[in-house]
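Action item from last week, closing it out:
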Amino acid sequence: MSRVISIFMGPSLAADGDAQWLPTAMRNGGRRRRAAAAPTIIAQMRIRSQRINPHVGVGQCPTFALTTILGAVNVHPAGAANLEYTVDSTLASPRLRPPSFQMIALLQAKAAGLWSRSHIGNNVLAGVVVGIVALPLAMAFAIASGARPEQGLYTAIVAALLTSIFGGTRVQISGPTGAFIAVLAIITAQHGIAGLQIATLMAGVILLVFGIVRLGAVIKYIPDPVIVGFTAGIGVIIFVGQWKDFLGLAPAPSGLRFHEKLWSLIEALPTINPATAGLGLLALAILTFGARYLKRIPAPLVALVVVTVVQAVFHFPGVATIGSAFGGIPRTLPALAIPTLDAARVLSLVGPAFTIALLGAIESLLSAVVADGMTGTRHDSNQELIGQGIANIVAPLFGGFAATGAIARTATNIRNGATSPLAGIVHSVFLVMVILLLAPLASAIPLCCLSAILFVVAWNMSELPHVVRLLRGAPKVDVGILLLTFLLTVFVDLVVAVNVGVILAALFFMRRMADSVNIEQHIEELPDSGTPGSPALPADEGVVIYNIDGPVFFGAAEKLERTLEHIQRPATTLILRMGNVPFVDATGIFAIEEIITDFKRHGAAVLLAEVRPNVRYKLERGGVLANVGAENVIDTLGLALLRAKELQALSARTSSKE
């Protein structure tokens, strides 16, 4: 039996198309022929690709991968004749090739001709510009995370270089980001910078495994209220955490919790340094107005230069600089250093490592989606995770720490003409040159200027307009999840916040799914007996037909049992129409088997009609078909009614003999 899926080509979103992976079902034994008539369409989807051919699949489209098992596939290229691919519909699932080197964005860009001379100039310029933008951000993020400023530069160099080479996004710029600050600062406070680097290395291994086992698409399923909630919470943590350097406060030692730090800072407000606060406000004003009026020059660079020059000229007392706080930045590159690992330390860092990996995966894939929207390309999620994993494994070996895709720097890269990974490579080379040539000048940079930059980062991360829009227009359940995730992020822990948010969202989704499952009695006359020209076959007395519309899973199993339990005694035959059941789980299988057993105990028969191949396979494995009888699993409702008549006649003959 062959079923058909129609695929309609959409507008191109990639210069070289999105065709990468091919289901085994289409590679082995696929039969190509010209369609003689319009096929029956049972599923539709839109593929964002410029072209498709019989020997190449359609990338990471999960809908395509899942639905090809239903049978034939019709491809309708614009202006071309229809093609039909017929495959074996008994296949349980398509198998996809594992990630290969062809998925690397660097090689994809080469295949698309983006390494030609016409593209090199734009990518070099974009790399320099984004390197200028990354310079103050990398140092600011490092200081806020409890590391030294040069370690932020080392992280930016290594991460951008390796993700550009091995990642799955052509224009992604990776490095230290604001999203990590809340997590890394706590890890550094508890385990030191060496512990942070070990946790980063472990997180890199986890990300690498995520990519190899192709969990890239799964990570995208984190609900928007959860993402908005924890990013807004991180923004608040960053904002409050920068009060000390922005205002020149001298707070007393405090705990690691947000409310403890906040109270300590409030108590220290009388110790404000006017000169530090004034320079911070000057930097904040330049950042605010520079974003509007400085189109060619990055506002953070202007703020950095202006505030540094003002402090160098006037020498305000009590203003902390990179030189006074950290002794300056060395004018050398770091040497390879393997961290010392022991079982106790590794075990204590498993939780932080998973936190870094999860947050890094979410942030990098969000950045990749933003890049896709701006460039019209399509990233490979799994290859991107592999690239991020490699970057986080190597970065701590050269003095760095956790890194991920940076949305703002990636957007800057694209706006300045980047089209290939060359821009990310140039970004890293530029930062290397800055360290080797200009490192001594960084000693004069006031910390309040870096805090002002982080204020802007915190504001952008909070996405206040988007939060307000969700609070006003989203369902109450989603609003509750957003607020709870936000509060848990700020006052408890990011991991707890994400876990609770995702679990609650999943539970409410399953409740809505269970409510959407419809189980109702069918009382109309049914003309389909499976035989051409057959008359209408009304259900005889004692034959009860029920339609199941929706998945039979643990959330809907009780509803199924509750609906059918009251009809056990009067009914002699129960027909369950399961054509609209897309899948069943173990609980659903057990519930169906219980119904069959109960009906048989009361002398009634159960027929299963219109069961889909994938559902039939699950029922067979679960022993349901053996219980109901293979002859009582029927393709059409009409044939099921005929089978019910046979069973009634057989029952009548048996009763008369007795």
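Closing note: Residues 105-507 form one domain.
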